[in-house]
Amino acid sequence: MKLGLVAAFAIGTGFALALVLGFQTIWNKPPAPQAIARVADWQPSQMQILGSLDKSPSSVFVETVELAPVLRDYDPPTPPDLNIALPQIAPPTLIWSGEISAGETLDALLSKAGLSARDRAEVALALEAEYDLRRLKPGYRLEVETSTLGALQRVVLSVEAGVQIEAVFLDRITTRRITPEPELIEHAADTTVQTSISATLASAGIPARFAVDLAEMLGGTVDFRRDLKGGERLQLMWRETMVGDEMIAQPSLSFATLTVDESIYEIIWPEDDSGNATIMIDGELLRVFAQPVNGARLSSVYGNRRHPIYGDIRMHTGVDFAAPRGTPVYATAPGRISYIGQRGGYGLVVEIAHGSDTMTLYSHLDSVPNELSVGQRLSAGDNIGRVGSTGTATGPNLHYEVRVDGRPTNPMTEDFLASAEGQIDKRADILPRLESLRAQFTALLDLDDPHSNPERL
Ligand SMILES: [Zn+2]
Fold first, then answer.
1. What is the pLDDT of residues 373-400, one digit of tens each?
2. CATH 2.70.70.10 in the chain, residue ranges
3. Which of 104, 98, 93, 105 is nearest to 154 (CA)?
4. CA 383/CA 352 separation, integer angstroms
5. Is 359 in contact with 352 (CB distance < 8 Å)?
6. CA of residue 399 to ligand 1 center, whole Å
7. If one looks up domain 93-178 in CATH, what number appears?
8. How far is the CA of 211 from the centre of ligand 1 (A)?
């Protein structure tokens, strides 16, 4: 009897316990994912509870309507922080990468990556949408991404100047060009002229091409061979356009000073592709150079030189500006067109008369605007044609000449071009710029000493 009571009690307790456990099951339901709701608003779905407790002894109890309000009023504990980055669920892929070697075709490289002929053709077609594949060079990298089943997914071609061509092969093929953001880096150097300007630049780790830029600006004023005896102070400030460690454009001078026989020459290059270069002497304006091609580099100066095609020493009667074919060419001073047409080795030429004794000549032109005609009046800066390589030329360039009384003269010393444009009046504008360039140079020099930077050597 006693035993029976105990047993009944035990069963009763067990049943009650089971009920409590039933509750606990409900209360301990894992918290809702954070994304679903704020915890205070959250209530478990009835359907889910019934489902999960189905066939358990307490399921009947849970089904009762009375229980629902209790659950709703219950303020569950703060759930654990679920703000953990979930692993990316991406299907596994295989990545093959290789480099184009000398004489290798894109197709051969894609074969190495294990692509079928059909996929190889598709890749070539996709890449060609954004890149001329004839420009491929040894050393360019290719990355091919395929699924584990071998399905082509993505191709990335890394070409010059940090540019990448990406083709994605999903339901449809998309190709895009990824161009890195270039960085402009300013440099300054303070050196002393040794045997020559070029030797000085070379030993200081400064771009050698600046010797031509300096000759362009000062060649007509300072005789680099006779006037430079060594020991002259040369200061330069320039810009380099970088993508990572790679220089993607030619470095360009912004400011230079050269002290010769107690005279200080200061050269200010235009800030952008437009505008004129200015030369100062002891703080006074010496010359403004009107450029027939904006932003172009002088590739050959006036005077005796070894001819690039004939190989012998010949007088170079003008200055050459190397620029891409099609670059606009401008009149350097106001005048009247005296000739348009072919002139032997000069190719297609435009000649402009400035008064009775002076003329300018623009040659190797690719084209001349249709509306241009002989006798027409022009202002300085009017477009008179486009850079080309007609006549005897090694590549697209403008050969520019200034003739006085029929004889070629050094365009860099022809002051008439500067004064004709009224550039002398711009003196007031150039002084603040000169001040800021001097300050910038001093500040940069403290940061950037090419002598102490072995990477520059
Ligand atoms: Zn020339």
1. 999 998 877 899 999 999 988 899 999 9
2. 291-420
3. 93
4. 12
5. yes
6. 4
7. 3.10.450.350
8. 18
User: What does the block give as tokens for 380?
Assistant: 């300085």
Return the CATH architecture of domain 184-289+446-457. Answer: Roll (3.10)
User: How many C-beta neighbours within 10 Å does residue 47 have?
Assistant: 8
Question: Which residue would you say has higher pLDDT here, 37 or 335?
Answer: 335
**Strand (E) or helix (H) holding 401:** strand 397-404
CA 212 to ligand 1 center in whole angstroms: 14
**Rounded distance, CA 364 to CA 455, Å?**
39
Distance 46 CA to ligand 1 centre (A): 90
Sorted by sequence, the CB contacts under 8 Å of residue 427 that are 6+ apart come out as 285
Q: 358 to each of 267, 335, 374, 390, 409, how far by Cα in Å?
A: 26, 10, 16, 24, 10
Å from CA of 139 to ligand 1 middle: 35
- Asked if residue 243 lies in contact with residue 409, where contact means CB atoms within 8 angstroms, the answer is no
Tell how far the Cα of 281 is from the centroid of ligand 1, in angstroms. Answer: 28
The residues whose Cβ lies within 5 A of ligand 1, an ion, are 320, 399
Strand partners, 175: 167
How far is it, in rounded angstroms, from Cα 94 to Cα 88? 16
Distance 305 CA to ligand 1 centre (A): 10
Q: Can you say how many angstroms the Cα of residue 349 is from the centroid of all Cα atoms in its chain? A: 35
In the chain, list all ranges with CATH 3.10.450.350: 93-178, 184-289+446-457
Distance CA 279, CA 221 (A): 10
pTM as predicted: 0.56
Query: Cα(431) to centroid of ligand 1, in Å?
Result: 33
Q: Which residue has the higher pLDDT, 21 or 168?
A: 168
C-alpha span between 98 and 86 (Å, rounded) = 32
Q: From the options 3.20.20.150, 1.10.510.10, 3.30.300.30, 2.70.70.10, give the CATH code of 291-420.
A: 2.70.70.10
Condensed to tens digits (0 to 9), the pLDDT of residues 239-296 reads 998 887 888 888 889 999 999 988 999 999 877 655 577 888 998 888 777 778 876 6
How is residue 166 written in tokens?
Answer: 């990406």
Q: Which amino acid is at 254?
A: S
Rg (CA), the chain: 39
CA-closest candidate to residue 300, choices 434, 440, 184, 412: 412
Strands 263-268 and 246-247: unpaired
Mean pLDDT of 122-145: 94
